[in-house]
Task: structure prediction
Amino acid sequence: MRMAVTSNSSLANKEQSSSGKSSMDVDSSEYTCLHEVSYPPEYYPASPARRSSSSSCKPAKEYPFTLDPFQQEAIRCLESGESVLVSAHTSAGKTVVAEYAIALSLRDNQRVIYTSPIKALSNQKFRELSEEFSDVGLMTGDVTISENASCLVMTTEILRGMQYRGSEVMREVAWIIFDEVHYMRDRERGVVWEESIVMAPKNARFVFLSATVPNAREFSDWVAKVHQQPCHIVYTDFRPTPLQHYVFPAGGDGLYLVVDEKGSFREESFYKAVNAVSTGIDKKSKAANGKRKRDFENSEQSDIFKLVKMIMVRQFDPVIVFSFSKRECEFLANQMAKLDLNNEDEKSLVDGVFSNALDSLSDDDKKLPQVGHLLPLLKRGIGVHHSGLLPILKEVIEILFQEGLIKCLFATETFSIGLNMPAKTVVFTNVRKFDGDKFRWVTSGEYIQMSGRAGRRGLDDRGVCILMLDEKLEPAIAKSMVKGSPDPLNSAFHLSYNMILNQMRCEESDPETLLRSSFYQFQCDRALPQLQDRVLNLEKERDAIHIEGEDNVKNYYSLLEQSRKLRGEIRKIVLSPQHSLPFLQPGRLARVLISGMLESEETYLQREELTVWGVIVNFEKVQSSSLASVDETVKVKAREAGYMVDILANCVSNNEKSKAGTVRPVSLDEPGEPLVASFPLSQVEHLSAIRVNVAKDLRGLEARESTLSKVCEILRRFPEGLPMLDPEDDMQVDSSSYKKAVRRLEGIESLIENHTIASSSTLEDRLRSYHKKDELTQSIRAARQDVRAATNLVFKDELKYRRRVLRRLGYATSDDVVELKGKVACEISSADELVLSELIFKGLLKDVSAEQMVALLSCFVWQEKVKSDQKLSEDLSTLYSQLQETARRVGKVQLECKLGVDVEDYVNSFRPDIMEMVFAWAKGAKFLEIMKLGAVFEGSLIRAMKRLEEVIRQLISAATAIGELELEAKFQQGSALIKRDIVFAASLYL
Result:
């Protein structure tokens, strides 16, 4: 093993760097471990002799097995009393380092905090650590056990709350362990990690446990700078159990090895697999002909059934089958109906574990459909794990899987986060996922995270990953997925009102200090030299372009651009709804702007926008609901235009599994197929005077091909161009703005025609050169803006605007003194703090019953979209209207203070989907009864209820802070009403 103890030149003196062989050298081809250390500025490390003498006492913990080199290196750092980031693959053994840090703290009579990203993982860790150590406590918000223990396991949110409250524990803590610290890149909750690290006590030391991240050094440099202490990086790519990656083509019968256990990508094998996809799909569609699709998919011929059966025959079990949809997980599990993977003894054990686990539930809760549906599956050795399951069932499944009683588990991506449950094989049912905005390819980092579950150390000589492929996948994308590098650890820092108010209230800090110390600011500062180099390089490239008579060329170029701009303005007037709607009849030929510019190789003057011809089929007024799944750019254009036009054109498929962007129109002379695509009216460039007959039903391919062939024939007959509708004679455009634009266009075209360089033989070359120079000038301007932004404090403007909102709404004074309203918002971190505080001070929560109050608060915690026709009762509907009115007022204030808030989207983010269910639950209804009131997953509803109880707990603290005893009592009553039965059943790990 080659080890280097180095330091970043920007953070330490170069003479502090050293490198050499470790005493634990192994063959680097078998094991590679990198050990570096980041030092803060002006830091002089202790001599090696002093460091070794300080750690010469007996080890805090001894292990019955030989530690890996990376574990030994990390423990050496801990013994020297210095922070360490351990970056290694899943199941490599990072937990050993955490356990040693705890043992070290307990040996030295110090307090230690172990944080994790999710409550379920905290519960698991508490159970594991309690078996290993005696003095362990747990704090997750839901549960508090032994809060005065020397070792406290908690979620990162709890740690952040303790820091803001100035908890006594923070003064005593010597070590803080951040498990799964790469979670810091999570766009919603990642900021909590940054806040917690920045605000940690200056005398504390850290253990960061992370999956492999390529920029681990950057992270450790940041920690060293913020806390003025050394931070070691122990990084290993070594995987104790090597992986083999296979592809299973749709409709195929076998596996193709694409990456072997040595990490070599086999392109020939991959191409065979990709080619087998289309062949397999064709065979499958023929086999399914004449049968209902559902019948076919549930048969033994389904791909997933064949694959799981193959895995069992080859003894590759246990297997985790990853799917990116909760419903698909259950659907696929049900396809295994004819597989029985457990013997009678195992079935009896499953029955016993299941019955014991559910003993704490009432008889009614035991009759829930999800409970009854799952037991037969589990007895056959098949499990399902996703966020929609009842929490107690998820834990039963985790325990059964650990005990080897589940051979095939269908799970969503969340199963790969934190839970230490490896399998021999991992299967990916899809290579695309919906990330909240769009469908996209799985990133290499996500693939590494999930595939890391394959291969059990000490049990398997190799792990097996199988990618089910049902569409054409580019080799480059596949290679980057299965052979790519992990996702970098980038900051997801963002401001919140709760953060700003808590920082204002804290004597020792302020928002600017937090921003300046954030990892986001650190990354921006580090990017500054590259940005400055980019400006210099662009300027050199621009200055190297010399143009004869540049002033004349510049003037001529400007006239050409004005001409193009005026043509666009004229088109906008002519094709506005008032003039164009009467002419959007089915059958009319239309030319549509696609995107970008068509650059001619011969001449700059022939440069024109990319367009395609098609036939109008229909048009409709834009409705917000119809744009829900549309690309953001198209959404903006559609709202501006007010109308969407359906056009039959020659298209190619994008293989996008979403409603929007499934097809891309192309020129009629390119390969494609006739399909109907929707365009905003603003993208229609010209309407032809010609119309063709269009079949009433265009669902059949023959009808679409026939219509498009007519378009091709008409274009052939008019080689000089189709006759267009005349704006004035045909479309009756008679506005003064249109006439003014036409006159200006005529004047500019006259100037272009009579320009002094119009007849120059070198005009085209000079125009091209000037065009390139102009583009470089624009790039330089943008790059200089990036430099200015990187030089300034990030989020500086947003912080100013948010402070303005807080002053305008009465949460803080102009001197940043937190008012009474602000003290309430300081306590609320799990919901929208402004709207909730406004409701409290409006008196709305005091004037309603406790049941109505918790129903209203459910709008703050429910985020899933539910299709439901059920209407709210009159009382709840009135309450929801008042919530919307409050949210609209808060949204408008934010908009007035220059924050980019879409007021209607903001108002609609408070969803009333589970109000009736929560109201009924608070009234004492059984869980089985409330599940009939809405089409939601049981687990999703319970998770929302737990978040609701968390919000109520924060509201109790807020009411206490402002001395509102009556309101505090109501919140406590609301908490008691919902905190019962299966919704708050105790965790099996506790």
Observations:
- The chain has four domains: 2-236, 243-483, 584-725, 798-984.
